[in-house]
Each structure stands twice: as C-alpha cells, then as structure tokens.
Specification:
Helices cover 80% and strands 4% of the residues. It is mostly helical. A hairpin with a 2-residue loop joins strand 1 and strand 2.
C-alpha cells in the first residue's frame, strides 16, 4: 500500500501512466478493428455478446500476462537462430500472429471483392461464422496483441500498478468504442475494405518485427490516420452527392 501511495505522489509516475494509457489505447484500436470485423459476420443477436466476450478475453489475457512479467521479459531472449537472426518466443508469436492476420485479412478482402466465389483455398462454403469460431479467432489475435501490449508496457515502466491501470483504461475505451465502431464499419462497406487494409498492414508489421526489422509505430499510425482522413472525405463527398440527388427530386 505504501508503495502505491508513493507512486501516486510521484509526478514522473503520472507522466508514465498518461503515456502508457495513450500507447495502450492505440494498440487496442488494432485489436478492436479485428474484433469488429469478425463479430459483424455473426447473426445480429450474437454480435454484441461476442464483442464483449472478445474484449473481456483481451483484458483477462493482459492481466494474466502482467502477473507473469518476469516470464514476459524472458520471452524476448533468443531461443534459436534462423538465417543468422536469433528468434525469441515473442518473435515467433508475433510472426505467427502476423501470418494469421495477413491470411484472415486476405480472405476477407477476397470475399468482399468476389462475394460469390466457387470452392477454393479460402473455404467459402460456410456463409455465417459460428459463435465459437469467432471467439476462437478473436482469442488468437487477443493473445498476440496482449503480448505486444505488455512487452511495450514493460519497456516503458517498471511499475506493475501503472501497467494495470493503463490496461484497465485501454480496455474500458475498447468496451465503450466497440459497438459504435462495429456499427459504423457495418454501415459503410468501403470502411470495411479500409479496415481490412489496416489489418493487412499490421500483420506485415508484426511479421517484420518478429524477424527483427524494427518498424516505427509512428509511421504505421500516420499512414492509418492519413488513410482514415481520405476515407472520411470520401464519405462526406458521397453524402453530399446523395443530399443533392435527393433535393433534385
């Protein structure tokens, strides 16, 4: 208790908390986009419950990982070498998660571009995703994003209470934003393609980082912000044309 009170009285701890909350919220957006796209494929009555379960799993995984910070730190130590580069467990998890994200985003883009394809490698026989399958896919990416989130937190502060508060704040934002974001994505088909493009880019970034190529997060998020701005202008333009068209009648 004394240690927590000492942290509360330390201005540097508050600066670290604010910075870490911002970082965790940004990292949570990636997770939330994926959850929104997956749950929108469920029957309407299951979508909100799946989003809450997916975000709850993200919280549980993050808190569980915080309880094993010493193990998380050891995950960054090289286990073996591949092509002259030492790979750690974290690297392998990031590579696997990135490959899954690239596969999933490519599959969804394929379905959006060609809504009635024949049987192929993408297995389009099942029109509606099952609740269990959706939660399984969300769990896989929750794990990847949770490890990335906690490794980032460990790198920014040594204080576990600050990490816990930052994670709780980020997950609260995810809970509040989940339904509005999912509804917005569902109501705007072009936004779905933009979000899938983001997932593809994030997947490639995870793979690159797993192989030791550092990709500055600022560049990735700047590209996402610019693309979002362009898409927002397109939405405003379409709505303006619709209003003019409606007024003409």
């Amino acid at each position: 208790m004394d240690a927590i009170l000492a942290l509360a009285a330390d201005p540097a701890a508050w600066v670290a908390l604010a910075t870490l909350v911002a970082m965790e919220v940004v990292l949570g957006i990636d997770n939330l986009i994926f959850i929104s796209i997956i749950t929108n494929k469920l029957p309407p009555e299951q979508q909100e419950r799946a989003r809450r379960v997916g975000i709850a799993l993200a919280l549980v995984l993050r808190l569980a990982l915080l309880g094993t910070v010493a193990i998380i730190v050891r995950l960054t130590e090289p286990v073996f070498e591949l092509f002259g580069h030492g790979l750690s467990w974290r690297d392998m998890i990031l590579i696997a998660g990135g490959l899954f994200l690239v596969w999933k985003a490519t599959k969804e883009i394929h379905h959006n571009v060609d809504p009635d394809p024949g049987p192929d490698m993408f297995d389009t026989q099942k029109a509606v995703l099952g609740f269990g399958a959706a939660i399984g896919q969300i769990l896989v990416l929750d794990l990847v994003f949770s490890i990335d989130s906690i490794v980032t937190a460990v790198g920014m502060t040594p204080h576990v209470p600050i990490m816990v508060v930052a994670v709780l704040a980020a997950v609260t934002v995810m809970l509040l934003a989940a339904n509005p974001l999912a509804r917005f994505i569902q109501a705007n088909p072009t936004v779905v393609m933009l979000a899938l493009g983001f997932l593809l880019m994030i997947g490639m970034t995870l793979i690159a980082e797993g192989f030791g190529a550092h990709v500055p997060k600022g560049y990735v998020y700047a590209a996402m912000a610019f693309s979002t701005l362009v898409e927002a202008l397109n939405l405003f333009s379409r709505r303006a044309r619709q209003r003019r068209g409606g007024g003409a009648h």
